[in-house]
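Run log, item B.
One chain of 196 residues. Sequence copied directly from the ordering sheet:
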Amino acid sequence: MDSLGPRIKELRLEANLNKAALARRVGVSDVTISYWESGAIKQIGHERLVALAEALGCPLSRLIEGESSGRAKPLYLRSDPPAPWQDPGAGRIEMPFELVPAQEWEGDCFLLTPVPGETFDFIAAGDLVAVAPTEIFRQTGLYLVEREGRHCIRRVSQGPTGELQFQAEESDEVVGYTPDTRLLGKLVARWRAEAL
């Protein structure tokens, strides 16, 4: 996969922008643009990436993944199983480290968005999330969970004795593990639709 820095430069030149013009559109200095392009700054926050994609006039997915013939398209997240990536045509993406610096993650990811008409905690209609399939708890955070035969998003953490704890978005109630609960994937990045 191409690194993000050269892709930013390529897209800037494609948009016929100099560094100063792009910097003004994104709300950073032209030195910051130089650092991003050279790779001197490797961690770019999600809000800046969304602003960068908008300023470059390209979809966020093109900024993240580049332009390749096998480019992954977002998969629909449904409340009914199976997991979206179990479709044989599902395209994987690689998440550049600079997009998920707080995550301790390596491996395949899939871009997901809620199917129109369905709602999920923590992600709204039109939001885009990168989910890494796993049935193993890796670290506290948001996970795609199957519970009582339905998909949901829950904040998952470990209790004092190591037991998994599940929490909905607008609830103080922490629910413990039950035999009908299983982890499907970890959300490693999230982009809000209103920012796109």
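Observations after the first pass:
- The chain has two domains: 4-65, 75-195.
- The chain has a mean pLDDT of 84.
Flagged for discussion on Thursday.
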